[in-house]
Amino acid sequence: MRYKKLGRTGLLVSEICFGTMTIGGDAGIWGLIGKLEHKESDALIKAAFDGGVNFFDTADVYGFGASEEIFGASLKSLGLPRDEIVVATKVHGRLLPRLGPNASAVEHAEAERRAGARNVNGLSRKHIMQAIDDSLRRTGLDYIDLYQIHGLDPLTPLEETLSALDDVVKAGKVRYIGLCNLHAWQITKSLWISDKNNLSRFESLQMYYSIAGRDLEREVVPLAQDQNLAILPWSPLAGGFLTGKHTRDGGPNDARRTVFDFPPVDRERAFACIDAMRPIAQAHDASIAGVALAWLLHKPWVTSVIIGAKNPDQLKDNLVAPKIKLAAEEMAALDAVSALAEEYPGWMTARQGDDRASQIS
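Now predict its structure.
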């Protein structure tokens, strides 16, 4: 396992990050993604830590709070050293009460109320201040290493969000802040606001990125490189599509992609990537999933790849990825089959810049 700096900070994180979205789901999409409980969580987190992983990512909405609770309980029961691990969580979503089969009418009424309540989600100062305290209580931790906004709140000005995040940093509840799923112009605007007002700035970008989904490379990757921002790809296997289990004739009935078709992919393009990865996987005595992860790890702008696992075998397979050394010709073949179609203004700036760039000798 290798370790990299988180952007411009002095924080070192493993190049594989263990994501906890498969832990604690019992309803809605969370139940479709994963239902791991305490015993399974303990085993996977211990195996990840023993494999060199020091970076763990969760979110308040995963399992409607259960993921944070079970993850925090695992850290305590396993006795993992707090000074050696980096914990990330997120704020934005609406948490609904988890209703068991014997839930009372009062509990159902509360769930219905929260489903339509205002100010229990988003990125307002009110919600952020409540959400960080709730996450600390659920995880049983004194602070969060990386606190990330989970997406865009169109109702709250970025100035308000960044000011509130700066306050939770100054209060010692959070060490660094990051973001997920924003446009490049919004990221740039946020950096300008932080610089102008001397506020803590976003240090990391958790974004969807896979060999089947390289849209990030158009605008966000150049921005991240210019501003020294860490890129943390989520869903590096495109929601399980790149495991090799799916074919043009279909896939397993119990696979995540079968029951929860997300994130969107161009299937023919993705299948072409799988076809190209298959012989490379065989040459390295690895899985197709391992090659898909290794391809990301070979990209210099990637800091840490967030993996998910439902069982020890999946985790073991993912942890092999850092050991896969792809040759230059293998990377070139994978880059070619997965290449993005040219878009404006990219093709125009490249054309106009060629003559100028050629003057360097």
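The beta strands are 3-5, 12-14, 16-19, 55-57, 86-91, 144-149, 174-180, 202-208, 230-234, 305-307.
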